[in-house]
UniProtKB/TrEMBL annotation:
GO terms for biological process: threonine biosynthetic process. It catalyses: L-homoserine + ATP = O-phospho-L-homoserine + ADP + H(+). GO terms for molecular function: ATP binding; homoserine kinase activity. The lineage of its organism: Bacteria, Pseudomonadati, Pseudomonadota, Alphaproteobacteria, Rhodospirillales. Belongs to the pseudomonas-type ThrB family. It comes from the Bacteria. It comes from Pelagibius litoralis. The keyword Nucleotide-binding applies. Its EC number is 2.7.1.39. This is Homoserine kinase. PANTHER family: AMINOGLYCOSIDE PHOSPHOTRANSFERASE DOMAIN-CONTAINING PROTEIN, AMINOGLYCOSIDE PHOSPHOTRANSFERASE DOMAIN-CONTAINING PROTEIN-RELATED.
Amino acid sequence: MAVYTEVSAEDLACFVADYDLGELLSFKGIAEGVENSNYLLQAEKGSYILTLYEKRVAAEDLPFFLGLMEHLAGRGISCPVPLHAGDGKALRQLCGRPAALISFLEGLSPRRAQTFHCSALGAALARMHLAGADFPLQRRNALSVDGWRPLLEACAGRADTVSPGLAEALESELKHLEANWPDKLPAGVIHADLFPDNVFFRREQLTGIIDFYFACNDFFAYDLAVCLNAWCFEQDNAFNVTKARMLLQSYSRERAFSEAELEALPLLARGSALRFLLTRLYDWLHHPEGAFVQPKDPLEYWKKLKFHQEVRGPGAYGLDL
Ligand SMILES: Nc1ncnc2c1ncn2[C@@H]1O[C@H](COP(=O)(O)OP(=O)(O)O)[C@@H](O)[C@H]1O
Ligand SMILES: N[C@@H](CCOP(=O)(O)O)C(=O)O
């Protein structure tokens, strides 16, 4: 359950009075999510999401995240729009935490990704990359290759309790990635966490992208690598090359990628798998007893990583050079 900060009806009514939403009719905590506290609000003028930003989100990054949503929405990307209060501010305080109200998006996230989802996703991802081109703020990807070693160091001592031999295998993978990570590929604003739970659909139409709280400046192809991992493996961890082809082909119709980007995909896919493996492993080993949020399985990403280690070229993802 991702409601870490409880908000009283009185505090909320007082907070909402500074916006032009009409009377607050009801509100409830949202169980989904990991990082922040989220509430669904019904007011006279519609539905809204209230987010209270918890400790893992650095306050100095919030103008980037909120500004990016506003920028993308202004360029036709279906994502939440932050609301401005009467004082003009989108980022405010509630119950001692930074807080913002954003617009509510209709749709449901897919329980099991199908090929049509991957196709719609590819096009939306490319459009988002293009729409971010003139976003003026910058944010370094704190969870790229130079952020992985501190995470591994924080886990290495106990990694073998999760799977024997894991610490050594991860050390060797990280060394490989540190030595080979590309330094020059087309880059811009990326989402960096575009998992199925962050994409909404109605019937076969993609209706929205949410959760920009890992967005940053990095290689566009790294976002594709995140999506390959999150959308193109079946429940038994078999890679579905048709889904990958749909994702990449529909992406390339909106934004053609270069040979260098395609060639880098296997390595970027390994890196993206390691990134989610490490954050999950960290949460697995460090989550407090009795915590609300159930940590996600790190070993799912170890299996994905091992698949990419065997890949010899981008043809494995359904596209040839
Ligand atoms: N703009 C939105 N419109 C509709 N539902 C939303 C919106 N933002 C968040 N949600 C709901 O809240 C849940 C958690 O949001 P998310 O941003 O993923 O949280 P966290 O950053 O804590 O992981 C989502 O799974 C979704 O159900
Ligand atoms: N997508 C990450 C976890 C981050 O959760 P989110 O609710 O913020 O998307 C993972 O699966 O490890």
